[in-house]
């Protein structure tokens, strides 16, 4: 079941990331694909970011959150947090490299946005581990 959920979530993230217009995909069933002329020219370009641009903030938060969930699902399947982080980050890079084939512009900065979600998962995981160790040590001392 864990692997099925992981595969499902990976496909959801892929379709959301590589679809030029998700609205057109849902309403018209069209998926634009550009096998022979992908445009990688924007990969190293930065885009103007402003917290006043609500759409961009929501979009990037969604990207980070989707990769946090992906890291969690990978960790559940692989049982190794380092490998889960590695595969989640590689998946984020792969998605950005695939986007020009779907009429979008993959960007290196978005690899870092995706990686931020993975890093937040890792931070939360470590926080829970430290808390559990502290709670366990406190309980042992109280028994003595």
TrEMBL record:
Presence of keyword Manganese: no
Name the record gives this protein: VanZ family protein
Tagged with keyword Transmembrane helix: yes
Coiled coil (UniProt feature): none
InterPro entries: VanZ-like (IPR006976)
Transmembrane portions of the chain: 7-26, 46-72, 84-102, 108-128
Keywords linked to the UniProt accession: Membrane, Transmembrane, Transmembrane helix
Species whose genome carries this gene: Halalkalibacter suaedae
């Amino acid at each position: 079941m864990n692997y099925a959920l992981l595969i499902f979530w990976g496909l959801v993230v892929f379709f959301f990331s590589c679809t030029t217009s998700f609205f057109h995909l849902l309403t018209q069933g069209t998926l634009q694909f550009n096998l022979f002329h992908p445009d990688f020219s924007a990969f190293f370009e930065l885009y103007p970011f402003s917290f006043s641009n609500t759409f961009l903030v929501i979009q990037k938060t969604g990207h980070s959150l989707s990769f946090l969930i992906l890291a969690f699902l990978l960790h559940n399947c692989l049982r190794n947090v380092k490998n889960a982080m590695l595969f989640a980050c590689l998946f984020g890079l792969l998605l950005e490299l695939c986007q020009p084939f779907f009429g979008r512009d993959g960007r290196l900065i978005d690899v870092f946005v995706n990686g931020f979600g993975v890093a937040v998962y890792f931070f939360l995981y470590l926080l829970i581990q430290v808390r559990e160790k502290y709670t366990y040590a406190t309980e042992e001392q109280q028994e003595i």
